[in-house]
Specification:
Structural class: mainly alpha
Strand content: under 5%
Order of helices and strands: HHHHHH
Shape: globular
Helix content: over 70%
Largest sheet: none
Length: 137
């Protein structure tokens, strides 16, 4: 399960593009510090996912609860494809067919199964904080 990815997608879908981007930057930087990939790779991919997850109006996610469930596997696949593309651009060997079926698809399914719990927690947290967002005055 990609907890940081689910948190970024969930928060972006609840709070919009700006907060999705901020948490994508924070989460991506933290993952970059802990991984062997070149710094900025995960940050770039996670930031794009944060922007994309916040592109749909947050009200739709709150009205149609199936959207977060569909967003998690879609975001997982997009994130992994962005990461692999960036790594290949940086000269790392990437076995596209060898990674998609045995790695990316199971990860997408696991993230879809975990998203209701993560989204439920984030929705609860969203109600507990101020209505204007984390950065409101």
């Amino acid at each position: 399960m990609d907890l940081v990815l689910l948190l970024v997608v969930g928060w972006g879908s609840l709070r919009g593009r700006e907060e999705g981007l901020v948490w994508g930057l924070i989460g991506g930087a933290m993952l970059d510090f802990l991984s062997a990939v070149p710094f900025g790779t995960t940050l770039t991919a996670m930031s794009l996912i944060g922007l994309l997850s916040g592109a749909v109006r947050p009200e739709l996610f709150q009205t149609y609860m199936i959207l977060p469930l569909l967003t998690a596997p879609t975001a997982t696949i997009i994130f992994d494809l962005i990461m692999l593309g960036l790594l290949q651009l940086l000269g790392w060997p990437v076995d596209w067919p060898g990674l998609f079926t045995p790695v990316i698809l199971p990860s997408a399914l696991l993230n879809a199964a975990a998203m209701p719990f993560v989204y439920g927690f984030l929705a609860w947290l969203n109600k507990r904080i101020q209505p204007g967002g984390l950065w409101a005055k």
